[in-house]
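Model it.
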Amino acid sequence: MTMQVLPGIMSVGFLGLVVAFYTPFFTYFGYLFYPVLWILGVPDPGLGSEALAIGLSELFLPATLVAGAESDVLRLIIAMVSVSQVFFFSSMVPSVLATDIPLSIKNIIIIWFERVILSTIIAAPFAYGIAALM
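Modeled.
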């Protein structure tokens, strides 16, 4: 199974990184998360929404995108949500598609989107609490 999955992981991961760094796709896709971050009162919801969207391509990209942000709350939320997303195209999706698990790419994206929204809503109070203690 490793030899079947590994080329898919590497190729999809590479394509995700190319799309993330050389196209505005994730910036526009991130607008879906902007209202949630705005309602939760997250500082710099534009950067946060792009970071949440870029989590679809790779697990660690959201954290690197907001690493220089001044807001501890934003960095904490992105760190918590990026770990809880689980489905990302560089490794998890090719692994699932290589097996007999009956999930389509459409269903995987819907599950990912729901997980990001719920994780953001759950992570925000924790991030505000931790930031208040710092």
